[in-house]
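== Sequence entry ==
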Amino acid sequence: MPNTETATKNGHANKTPNQKWIWGKRLFTIGFFILVIALLFTALKNIEWQEVKRALQAYQFKTLLLAGAVAATSLLVFSSYDLLARNFAKHKLPARQVLPLAFVCCVFTLNLAWIGGMASRFRLYSRLGLDAITVTKIISANVITNWLGYIILAGTIFSVGLLDLPSNWKIGSTALQVIGVALLLIAASYFWACRFSKRREFHIFKHTFTLPTLKFALIQAGLAAINWSLMGLIVYILLLGKVPYPTVLGILLISSIAGVITHIPAGIGVIETVFITMLQHQLTKGTILAALIGYRAVYFLLPLALASVIYIFLELNSKRSTHQAIAKGT
């Protein structure tokens, strides 16, 4: 007859790893929801909703409709980064599963900073069966895609001198041109490495990064450049064409990197400060603020409301699929 105490200990020892995994997933889920709620609160608490309402009412409906259509196109392009990353990470999830997930994560990234986007990708992709290494590859591909397009657009606008700077900023135009050339050299180096480098893998912060093909890199650059261009077009439309488009896009690019540096969700306050500072010689503060409030409404707030609903649906659908799989297994 086996020793009951020993058997119990052995049984406990056999279950411990599984129990730790279960508790780990529960803690991650709880932590994720706390993080999302905290970031949402931070992003929304400083918004003056009456100002949003007044700014939107001041626009003609066709202007808002056009801005909304451009915003929807931009978010579709933004979400397609994940479809491109699917080839890089070599997973087999269908587009019908990837695109809704990617939309949610992109909107969370815009509103809740990169932490919200990264955490939501790990959460949702893992629920679909992808391991941490694959999800990390997806995230890294997305980050490189996004900033590659940024580098090329910013480099072109800065180096060519397309920004119409205030008179007291003219001394900074040379510095911007130097920065622009440096950015273009970075992009060119990436393309060169993708085409000619014999070493295809690099270890960065304990993560292995694999260089894609030149064709893949060019698609990355094209998608992201289109997305950033569409974002600038939204602001241009809401400024009613009173400022040249290259200037609007250039200022948006500057304000976006400033928002990333300050780690403020949705760049609240940062984008406004940069635009007012750089356009005060052309437009009134009220005109600029109205356009940026409209921009936040159509590109951040309305998509956030939709993404929250889709996220709940994805969670419920994932839970239902898990229960069905368990039922089949039993």
Summary: Confidence is low (pLDDT under 50) at residues 4-15, 323-327. The longest strand covers residues 201-204.
